Amino acid sequence: MSDSSSPRTAPARLLPHGTALLHSLTELLARWLPRQRWFAGKGRPLDGLALVAATELLPCTATGPAPGLLHLLVRARQDHRSHPARAGADATVGATVGAGDCYQLLLGVRPVLPPALAPALVGRPVDGPLRGRAVYDALHDPRLAALLLERLRAPGRLGDLRFGRAPGSAIPAGLPARLLTGEQTNSSVVYGDSHILKLFRRVAPGLNPDLELPRALAEAGCTRVPAPSAWFEAHAAVTTEPLTLGVLQPYLAGSRDGWHLAQRSLSQRTDFRAAARSLGRATAEVHTALAAALPTSALGRAQLEQTATAMTERLTEATAAVPALRPYRVGLRRAYEDLAAFARGGGRCTVQRLHGDLHLGQVLHSGAAADQATGWSLIDFEGEPARPLADRRRLGPPVRDIAGMLRSFDYAACQHGAAAAFARRWSDAARRAFCEGYAAASGHDPLEQRELLRAYETDKAVYEVLYEARHRPAWLHVPMTAVRRLAG
Known about the structure:
Blueprint: H1 18-32, E1 46-58, E2 68-78, E3 91-93, E4 101-110, E5 121-123, E6 134-137, H2 142-153, E7 156-158, E8 161-165, E9 177-179, E10 186-191, E11 195-200, E12 202-203, H3 209-219, E13 230-234, E14 243-250, E15 256-257, H4 258-268, H5 273-293, E16 297-299, H6 301-321, H7 329-344, E17 349-351, E18 363-365, E19 376-378, H8 389-392, H9 398-416, H10 420-442, H11 450-471, H12 477-487
Parallel strand pairs: 1-3
Antiparallel strand pairs: 1-2, 2-4, 4-6, 4-12, 5-6, 7-8, 8-13, 9-10, 10-11, 11-14, 13-14, 15-18, 16-17, 18-19
């Protein structure tokens, strides 16, 4: 195993012992994985683990105090019929990724764990090649997190891993690493005030849109999205396509996300229309650049009628699960009937690549004033992480992103706790201003095709009702406020 200055060398120290390695870690991981915020299978028993790939980034079995660094791709088997006592009983190597959720793990290995890293401990294997050593989440270790940056600075191959770097990208060496604590579905490490590395915890074969779309926008000259500086992927023998593992981008130090700015505006009772209008312009610029850089298509009558049918089916499922939704289903269904009528009347809809999960938390403002035309940036093009990767890469109508942002204005107003009348006026004004800004930059006013906008906003609100009922019941009143409005 070479040292960190030789990123092209493929390590092999632990790979011949993959079965023993996973067997020694299975019981520890079976307890540790379900406790992580990014673990998607909460509430279901863990039936077993399968090792997809293992790569030593630093030697893990050498003597001495220096830490080792192990990169794992592990598939978690979960079955509603399984019993929790079986968790960890099945440890296999070389299984396919598609048979269960595949997770990316970065594990540090030390003979003695410093007290500062004690909260990151996974456990100590009682057998196998890491017997008796402390195994812990390496991203909490600034020394090991810094090693990832050095790997990304030097493109090449390391075992199953491939590191790539954008031509001409400037990535300083020796930047201190800091793990962010607010992530839920992924993990992010900030390096100095220069770059941020987003690591995807649940991964799947195929190009992640959070790498694909920012790269395409950078090549098209769009500056509304931070351009990827470097990235890394896994090319495991058991997968048909590479798995995108992480993306390094410039860190917009000092910026504020749209949710924070909206909450501040509501608290201070200030006018948010200028900020919303410039955000609409920024969104339109990104949509225009994506349409120019990547394929587009159009939905005709048959596809739009199918869309209306699918929305109606989702409403039926949601009303069955959430009784509070049932009094409004007739009014909500009318939005989908209007979409179908729009299609029968010759209406069409352009589809293209989208952000996929656009809301106020996915936009950053780095200017001194929120109404500056150049201040907004869009981030996190991963789409809705719970959806399959193929769905997140599918073409969709721009109005889907627009509806997501309009719903976010409502969320900000309802969740803040401001007086109801003021919050409603604030949200209405922000929604109108956003559409005005979008129309000014794109030449297309979202309000001109009201059937499309209302159907997609209704579909989003129904999804929110189901999500909040299952995960955050205290927030259910927020989408229900929109449901009452949309049903009327």
